[in-house]
Amino acid sequence: MTSNTTQHAPTDTAKGLRVGDVVEVLSAEEILATLDERGEFENLPFMPEMLRYCGQRLTVHKVAHKLCDTISSSGIRKMENAVHLTGSRCDGTSHGGCQTACLMYWKEAWLKRVDAGDADPVTTGPIALTLLEINTLKEPGPDGEPRYSCQATELLRAAPACLPARDIGQFVTDVKTGNVGAFASLKAFLVVLFNRLQTVSRRALPRRLWFRNGLRWGFVKGQLVGPTPTGELDLQPGEMVRIKTKEQIEATLNENMLNRGMGFEEEMARYCGRTARVQARVTKCLDEKSGKLLTMKNPCIILEDVVCAGVYNASCPRQFIPFWREIWLERV
What we know:
The protein contains 7 helices and 17 strands. The protein is 16% helix and 20% strand. It has 2 domains: 149 residues, no CATH class; 163 residues, no CATH class. By secondary structure, it is an alpha+beta fold. It starts with 21 loop residues before the first strand and ends with a strand. The longest helix is centred in the middle third of the chain and has 23 residues. The strands form 6 sheets. The chain has a 5-stranded antiparallel β-sheet, with no helix packed on it. A 4-stranded antiparallel β-sheet has the order 16-15-12-17, with no helix packed on it.
């Protein structure tokens, strides 16, 4: 891989892509030519799991002009010249079998528009993974266990600038790119404003003057002090479940909205009471802060078509797949 000295010039790759646009992923050779010695473009890694999409035509699912910071909780951060493509989630094969299934980021420099009448893409043969695979590993931790590097672990470098709530332009961009409609964008802005006011009230006002206990929009509050309960259903892929009510789930959470270390968030509460099909049991995931592969003592569940839509998080387009404790679910 060669270092690209002009890769940080946004105007070179600003294609103005919108949701629904059809693009073709460049060949592996063309993409590798854009990467530096770390296997990155604009500090964003190109991962081995992405190679299987080279030469394919995919649809822009979301324009990734911003993201929520799940590493340092700094809020919403700005991303340049990137999109999410429909059906392109990471399968974790080069990252220890991580099952987080992140929606991958695609720099516009790795894509080209497809216009009507364009010839079918030319498929290419397999390409050596050696350098890309080497770049997935960091220095081992103090415990000697491997540490991984992926797009999720490097997002603070790939998106170094924060987007303050007062930056109205981000909500306008959400509408212009087709990420969300005008009403949804307005709602997202109002939720951000409400949450900021709640934060200020908790800092400046006595508790008796807090509105709804100073909670963020969605109003999830854990009730337990000390150990939180567990529950096992041995759910298997294909089974139908109902997500319990918010009140039932709150009864399993501590004051930090955790159940045995796993968080339940306001975005997840939007799905309470709904039915869904079990997609998979999750036992492995990467810790974004350390890059360490974590093995869960008790498997968690992911559900089909249940994602974080960013409704309460400034319309963040990352669309995480939430993990569900079995105690939060019940068989239909």
